[in-house]
């Protein structure tokens, strides 16, 4: 299993020791200031040299910030469109990513959990955040076995399902991987990101190469909408092929603009998950 390394761009609160920069005081190596021993009665942190220089003669102790553990959640789209894929379905690629995320969280000392949604929250796939050596398998197994063949109910809204799932993380500090193909309207995402305002959100866009590049040869093609199972027959020709590529480029630009306006940068997974690319993503974000 290939894990990746991640660093959070902001300080996080919490009392459980971990690997991330924290905002709370406690045992740690990051010095903040000196305080009087009477206000901070911890003789183990006594700083003799600073106390000797103190004009009022107070005994001074060192006050530090502690590094903390941060829960990691994969919020996974398991709608019917995620069942599409030429070699591997997008859902299987998502499962590979979830396994790597769980394994990476354990290596960093962070608990990892899974929240899934389609047109409502999939409570049958929910896994609470836990610090476990087998966290990767615990997150991936429900996704590899998840039924995604449910037809779209009348007046269903995928964003409403995501909003329902995000309620579990409302107001909490966490690292949230929002994984989907995002083949749905983006405007309702504002409400979701509002709930996750205190979290570090990483949009993970999972696409399959077969939906990015049209077939090379001209001819009749039968296209099926993965969400509502409707079919359409088209004559594939050079002009339609150009429109196909232009639509993919426009969607990529729309995703980039939407997330950049909200201070986020999407990470693209096309065909297979690359753990090294994910590590580079976090490295660039913290430069």
Question: How are the elements arranged and paired?
Answer:
Elements: E1 17-20, E2 25-36, H1 48-53, E3 60-65, E4 72-77, H2 90-108, E5 112-117, E6 127-130, H3 135-144, H4 158-166, E7 175-180, H5 189-195, E8 200-207, H6 209-212, E9 219-224, E10 231-236, H7 238-260, E11 267-270, H8 275-285
Parallel strand pairs: 4-5, 4-7, 7-8, 8-11
Antiparallel strand pairs: 2-3, 5-6, 9-10
Task: Describe the protein's architecture and organization.
The chain has about 290 residues and is α/β, with parallel strands linked by helices. Helices cover about 30% and strands about 25% of the residues. It has helices at about 50-55, 90-110, 135-145, 160-165, 190-195, 210, 240-260, 275-285, and strands at about 15-20, 25-35, 60-65, 70-75, 110-115, 125-130, 175-180, 200-205, 220-225, 230-235, 265-270. The strands form 3 sheets. Strands 6-5-4-7-8-11 form a 6-stranded mixed beta sheet, sandwiched between helices. A two-stranded antiparallel ribbon has the order 2-3. A two-stranded antiparallel ribbon has the order 9-10. The radius of gyration is 24 Å and the shape is elongated. About 30% of the residues are buried.
Summarize the structure in short.
This protein has helices at residues 48-53, 90-108, 135-144, 158-166, 189-195, 209-212, 238-260, 275-285; strands at residues 17-20, 25-36, 60-65, 72-77, 112-117, 127-130, 175-180, 200-207, 219-224, 231-236, 267-270. The chain is of the alpha/beta class.
């Amino acid at each position: 299993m290939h894990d990746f390394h991640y660093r959070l761009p902001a300080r996080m609160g919490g009392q459980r020791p971990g690997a991330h920069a924290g905002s709370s005081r406690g045992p740690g190596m990051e010095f903040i200031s000196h305080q009087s021993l009477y206000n901070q009665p911890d003789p183990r942190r006594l700083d003799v040299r600073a106390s000797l220089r103190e004009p009022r003669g107070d005994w001074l102790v060192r006050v530090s910030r502690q590094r903390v553990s941060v829960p990691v959640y994969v919020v996974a789209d398991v709608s019917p469109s995620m069942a599409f894929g030429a070699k591997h379905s997008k859902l299987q690629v998502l499962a590979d990513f979830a396994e790597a995320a769980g394994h990476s969280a354990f290596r960093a000392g962070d608990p990892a959990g899974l929240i899934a949604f389609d047109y409502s929250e999939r409570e049958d796939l929910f896994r609470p955040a836990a610090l476990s050596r087998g966290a990767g398998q615990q997150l991936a197994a429900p996704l590899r076995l998840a039924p995604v063949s449910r037809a779209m109910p009348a007046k269903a809204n995928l964003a409403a399902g995501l909003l329902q799932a995000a309620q579990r993380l409302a107001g909490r500090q966490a690292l949230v991987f929002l994984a989907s193909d995002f083949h749905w309207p983006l405007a309702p995402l504002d409400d979701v990101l509002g709930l996750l305002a205190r979290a570090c959100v990483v949009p993970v866009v999972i696409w399959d190469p077969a939906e990015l590049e049209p077939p090379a040869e001209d001819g009749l093609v039968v296209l099926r909408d993965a969400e509502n199972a409707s079919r359409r027959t088209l004559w594939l020709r050079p002009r339609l092929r150009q429109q196909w590529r232009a639509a993919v480029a426009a969607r990529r630009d729309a995703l980039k603009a939407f997330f950049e306006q909200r201070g986020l940068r999407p990470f693209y997974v096309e065909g297979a998950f690359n753990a090294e690319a994910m590590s580079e993503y976090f490295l660039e974000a913290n430069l």
